[in-house]
Design brief:
The structure is a single chain. Helix content is 37%, strand content 13%. It is built from 7 helices and 6 strands. Strands 1, 2, 3, 4, 5 and 6 form a 6-stranded mixed sheet that branches. It is elongated, with a radius of gyration of 22 Å.
Length: 227
Amino acid sequence: RVVTVWTYSGMEPYTPAWDDLAAHATEPNPFCESWTLLPAWKHLAGPLDIRIVLVFSDDRSQPSTPGMLLGLFPIAARLRHETLRLRTAALWRHTHSPLGTPLLRKGYERTALNGLFDWLDRDRSLGRMLSVELAGGDGSFFENLQALADDQKRQLFSYNEFSRGVFRPMVDSETYFKTVLSPKWRRNLPEKYDKLSKIGHLETLELKPGDNLDYWLKSFFALEASG
């Protein structure tokens, strides 16, 4: 079952299911979760024609409920694609979002994508192409998208592919620094620490559960704003 929501306020009844989907997504994307996407839709969408497409399981045993949420896709209508000059739908991401991968429930990725493309086929007002920008190309989303394109004889065109850095936690901080920092850089760290110590009192603190996160964030943003 597919539900289309046209206003950010209309998503309120679906927020619990949305949060559950985010917690069980095959590829996490915090920029597609309710706590970030709804404020972005309200304040950053401007005149864009946006709707959110929700794909639910079809639970015939409970026809009064939409079923389990399997996929969530923020869709924006575009008159023309910037590169291909075609009328198209696009997975919308706001200007501060560096990741465009949609939320798909783990184990139901293909079902969710089938629901999305069935909906797109029925609504040709959005054109006949879906644009996906800055989505992960090495995960379950792209793998299932490729399989769907092969099975349904759809054309899948990728362009401007690139790799970018990602932070992957390791066993401990010492292992991390030895892995990502060169020996020369590590040798220079004590000297840099000494120079900072001469400027003023220097402490190394660690954020722990229960600490005041707001204080840390405000201090960081104040430091950034100071230049």
